[in-house]
User: Which sequence fits this backbone?
């Protein structure tokens, strides 16, 4: 933290604070942030819930055989995630569909809402993505042991490899298994944080460059388009990886 | 882009400043790594996830699933109905074509019968007319023959009378038998 302060001071005149957008603030007053304090985290998660209600409850209330536009959006999400869960985890995994749908919709909505100007991106925080990833990790581990017992451990024993290599591979497999939540969470949080910080840095340039700020503004427009893609793709990647991990727990062994 | 807060505000913000925010309200290092905020984020994340899960699993997903299933059923039913209607239409078309063909044969039969009838009537009328014509012809011929015979007799009589008159006029003695013989001989010759 000390080095951070020094850097901040060294920046001096060119006031670019790309990380300020990630500060968690209480919504009311300036008091300390307790675990229960309503903060901008609460606000933007709440907006995500409202959007979810709009798309999935309000838009589908007519249960139209011929769907309205918004209802067909909800159906699109439903079909997309349902097919993904069924294709990747198999028929057994389909009962995890609501759980995976929740993860996907939360990440997707948080990512997309985070792209609104002045918004706060909850999924850019490692604390949030780590909880999501740990939930997946715990689910996979518990479901795996519950369904397969100690047989779940056989996924670390690569039976298709030569016998000599198997212990080595087992060590690697175990390490990779425990690194999963780390890579799973940092991939999502890091992508979003980096994109938003880059946009902010370019915006800082634009503020300081006068007429030449056209260049960073065009760059921001380009990066913004890329960030839209990243927001959707990272939600997809997180979800499909969840399905892949879940297949280890519920599907037949694929090693 | 957040501009630097004016320095006078710094004391007010001092309260908010903590481990992760400096006196100017700026971030110190990465806010992502600030331990002060983690309980807050985790708590609200769990609340949000539970709410979202309840919305999706209790209301939205069963509803959408039912709608999709119902739509699939409706489409299947409609396709079956369409297939049935298509078959009905084909049957109707076949019936129509059959009826048309039957009507055509019927019509041609009627036409042939009518033609035959007309021909028969025509033949009968023609025959009758022929008979009538030949009868009239025969009658006419008879009349002509009579007239001709009458005319020849008249010529004979006139010739004899003329010859007698001539002879009498020339002062000869009229012998009707001789004159008649002479005229007859001349006429035959």
Assistant:
């Amino acid at each position: 933290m000390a080095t951070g302060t020094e850097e901040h001071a060294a920046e001096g005149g060119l006031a670019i604070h790309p990380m300020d957008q990630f500060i968690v603030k209480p919504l009311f007053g300036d008091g300390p942030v307790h675990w229960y304090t309503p903060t901008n985290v609460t606000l933007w998660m709440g907006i995500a819930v409202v959007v979810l209600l709009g798309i999935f409850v309000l838009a589908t209330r007519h249960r139209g055989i011929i769907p309205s536009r918004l209802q067909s959006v909800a159906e699109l999400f439903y079909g997309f995630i349902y097919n993904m869960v069924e294709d990747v985890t198999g028929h057994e995994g389909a009962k995890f569909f609501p759980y995976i749908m929740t993860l996907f919709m939360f990440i997707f909505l948080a990512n997309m809402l985070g792209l609104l100007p002045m918004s706060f991106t909850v999924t850019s925080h490692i604390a949030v993505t780590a909880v999501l990833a740990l939930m997946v990790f715990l689910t996979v581990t518990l479901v795996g042991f519950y369904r397969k017992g100690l047989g779940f451990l056989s996924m670390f024993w690569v039976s298709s490899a030569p016998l000599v290599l198997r212990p080595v591979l087992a060590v690697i497999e175990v390490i990779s298994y425990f690194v999963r939540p780390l890579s799973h969470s940092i991939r999502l949080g890091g992508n979003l944080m980096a994109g938003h910080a880059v946009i902010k840095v370019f915006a800082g340039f634009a503020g300081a460059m006068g007429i030449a700020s056209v260049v960073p503004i065009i760059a921001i427009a380009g990066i913004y388009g890329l960030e839209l893609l990243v927001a959707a793709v990272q939600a997809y990647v997180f979800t499909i990886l969840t399905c892949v991990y879940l297949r280890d727990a519920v599907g037949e062994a694929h090693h | 882009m957040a501009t630097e807060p004016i320095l006078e505000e710094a004391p007010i913000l001092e309260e908010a400043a903590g481990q992760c925010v400096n006196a100017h309200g700026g971030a110190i290092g990465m806010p992502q790594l600030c331990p002060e905020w983690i309980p807050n984020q985790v708590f609200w994340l769990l609340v949000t996830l539970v709410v979202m899960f309840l919305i999706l699993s209790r209301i939205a997903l069963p509803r959408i699933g039912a709608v999709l299933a119902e739509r699939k059923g409706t489409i299947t039913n409609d396709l079956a109905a369409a297939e049935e209607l298509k078959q009905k239409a084909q049957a109707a078309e076949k019936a129509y074509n059959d009826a048309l063909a039957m009507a055509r044969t019927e019509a041609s039969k009627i036409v042939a019968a009518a033609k035959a009838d007309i021909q028969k009537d025509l033949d009968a009328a023609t025959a009758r007319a022929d008979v009538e014509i030949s009868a009239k012809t025969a009658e006419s011929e008879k009349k002509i023959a009579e007239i001709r015979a009458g005319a020849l007799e008249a010529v004979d009589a006139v010739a004899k009378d003329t010859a007698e008159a001539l002879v009498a006029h020339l002062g000869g003695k009229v012998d009707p038998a001789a004159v008649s013989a002479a005229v007859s001989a001349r006429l035959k010759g």
User: Anything to note?
Assistant: Chain A touches chain B through 67 residues (CB under 8 Å). The helical segments of chain A are 2-11, 40-58, 69-89, 97-114, 126-148, 166-208, 214-250. Confidence is low (pLDDT under 50) at residues 1-12 of chain A. Residues 23-250 of chain A form one domain.
